[in-house]
Amino acid sequence: MVKVTYISVSGVETTVDGREGDSVMATAVANNIDGIVGECGGSMACATCHVYVDPAFAGRLSPRSDDEEAMLEGAASDPRPESRLSCQIRLSADLDGLVVRMPEEQM
Ligand code: FES
Q1: CA distances from 80 to 55, 84, 96 (A)
Q2: Pairing, β 98-101 against β 13-18
Q3: Is the pTM of this model over 0.70?
Q4: Predicted local distance difference test score (pLDDT) of residue 69
Q5: How many domains are contained in the chain?
Q6: Which residues line ligand 1 (CB under 6 A)?
Q7: pLDDT the model gives residue 23
Q8: Domain of 96?
Q9: How confident is the model at residue 85 (pLDDT cuts 50, 70, 90)?
């Protein structure tokens, strides 16, 4: 299992056990985490899974694709350097302890 901590806009932290191979978005939805919608189901067509990844983990993620960059530009909350689409982050042992923060708005 891979631990993931989701931090809401108001600062509430929720840590869950995710499965390797599952996305950060799917793990949030499966655990009823408020603030991640995942409207398109992970096909990179909605940006309602936008998160800010803790900088400590930034170097462990693969770079954003051009398509992900484009979707983030249209996200409801302004993208930042640490912005990612959580449907594009697959959990692995290397990401154990991952921390992501939710943006103000997803839609
Ligand atoms: Fe739609 Fe991630 S769930 S872009």
Answers
A1: 11, 9, 23
A2: unpaired
A3: yes
A4: 97
A5: 1
A6: 25, 38-40, 42, 44-49, 71, 85, 87
A7: 98
A8: 2-101
A9: very high
Task: Note whether residue 81 is domain-resident.
Answer: yes
Cβ atoms 14, 33 nearer than 8 A? yes
Residue closest by Cα to atom 4 of ligand 1: 44
Give the pLDDT confidence of 19-55 residue by residue, as tens digits. 999 999 999 999 999 999 999 999 999 999 999 999 9
89 CA to centre of ligand 1 in angstroms: 11
Asked if the structure places residue 55 within a domain, the reply is: yes
Q: Are 28 and 85 in contact (CB under 8 A)?
A: no
CATH number at residue 52: 3.10.20.30
**Cα-to-centroid distance, 53 and ligand 1 (Å):** 15
Residue 107 lies in a domain: no
Q: Which two tokens stand for residue 75?
A: 């996200």
